[in-house]
Amino acid sequence: MVMGTGQRRTKRGVPEGLWMSCPDCKATLYTKDVEQAQNVCPQCGHHFYISARRRLDSLLDQGSLEEWFTDVRPKDPLEFVDRKAYKDRLRAEQKKTDLNDAIVCGRGFIRGRPLAVCVTDSAFSMGSMGSVVGEMLVRSIERAIDLSLPIVIVSASGGGARMQEGILSLMQMAKVSAALGRLSRAGGLYISVLTNPTMGGVAASFASLGDICLAEPRALIGFAGPRTIWATVRIELPKGFQTSEFLLEHGFVDRIVSRHDMRGEISRIFDYCGK
Q: Is 95:88 a contact under the CB 8 Å cutoff?
């Protein structure tokens, strides 16, 4: 458009990030509407990624989180290097997510009911389980036993055990599972919440051991993903295999719960179990 001074006004574009597309229904969505709906598509209910801290805000009573073990940080005991040194990857992930590692733990309240809670974050190294994730889970479980609290663990791990830490990462599967065994013997309640994705060593250990296992809709849950299975053994998986709905049908999870309803569902379970 030509202005009166003879200068040409620059055409205004759409600001970046104002709109987003839903991968399921392909609808074009106003980003703020999705954020206000807890990162759930208002058209089809697709559950987008949500950070650990935002998930805690949506689950817990406002301002009730007492965060635990904030001084625990990952190290590089194997001095692992692939295309990039592991210590450099850690620094980059910490800067990107503002987390020490792929987990946030603490004590809070859901509708006035106290609990211990741990949430992994797939934005940090795909939510993979290294020594810090395992250690913080075990410490949280042991503190839940000491305080007679139920514990909720929300899993969002697309990376399983963290390969850069080798056997130190793999041993966390048994370590956390043993701690959950102690919780069970002490009469504690463990609710496992499976989100997209929950894969690898996480799915093969603590994420599958809940007294009650809840899952968000259409979450990818399993050990090896469809692409990995096809690449290794050339087997075409059944339609919907490793989704929440498939696993519910086959008895792997107890209930599928929308993110909007998760807070209420957990509080009802606490009431039912007398916690």
A: no
